[in-house]
Amino acid sequence: MSEAVETARLMDAVYRHQRHFYDLTRKYYLLGRDLLIEELRPPSGGVVLELGCGTGRNLIAAAKRYPEVRFYGLDISRHMLETAQKNIDKAGLSERITLIEGDAANPAATEGLGVPAFDRVFYSYTLSMIPIWREALAAGAARLKDGGRIHVVDFGQQKGLPGWFRKLLFTWLASFHVSPRAELQMELQGLAERTGMKLAFRPLYRDYAEYAELSKG
């Protein structure tokens, strides 16, 4: 069995029931998502891709924020995509948001969309859930237009918070197969150097979360 198939089965198992109350609970601890959406600032008529779109929450918020932009979302969990499509239909945004099932680490996963490259690619609390997260970052860079940007927000290492809080949070996250990436900044810097992009990286909320932008060209 391939790693992508194993990951898909794991994510479907984890979110088969959670998807129904995912957004209600996550808004309290997935901090920085709205900052990422505000910082996207895609060009009018542009195309934006979210890798690991989950329930579609970010895509819907971004589509409302940028009404002249087309959005695409990819996720490996069929259950999450079913919920996302329902949410998108309910929001009346099905003409501007397109979903596709696939592996974020596979650069060819979006070929069926007919979009050769994107103005923005973003990851919102996704890399901490993808086993081959480095490959997922590289795949996103491969899909980026000249002049485009990659945006990332995810869990930090809690350096500015009490040790007991970090231990409790990380133990709880592990129960959902979430692993905050201690090497995230280093990996982003390496990717920037390999691809000629420029990295801007900063911790948020005393390093509860980390936010990054990679600019191409």
UniProtKB/TrEMBL annotation:
Gene3D superfamilies referenced in this protein's UniProt entry, alphabetically: Vaccinia Virus protein VP39 (3.40.50.150)
GO biological process: methylation
Keywords tagged on the record: Methyltransferase, Transferase
The keyword Repressor is assigned to this record: no
UniProt KW Transferase keyword: yes
InterPro entries: Methyltransf_25, SAM-dependent_MTases_sf
Domain of life: Bacteria
Family matches, as SUPFAM superfamilies: S-adenosyl-L-methionine-dependent methyltransferases (SSF53335)
Xref: CDD domains: AdoMet_MTases
Entry's Gene Ontology molecular function annotations: methyltransferase activity
Boundaries of every Methyltransferase domain copy: 48-148
Record-linked PANTHER family: TRANS-ACONITATE 2-METHYLTRANSFERASE-RELATED
Protein name (Swiss-Prot/TrEMBL): Class I SAM-dependent methyltransferase
Organism per entry: Roseibium sediminicola
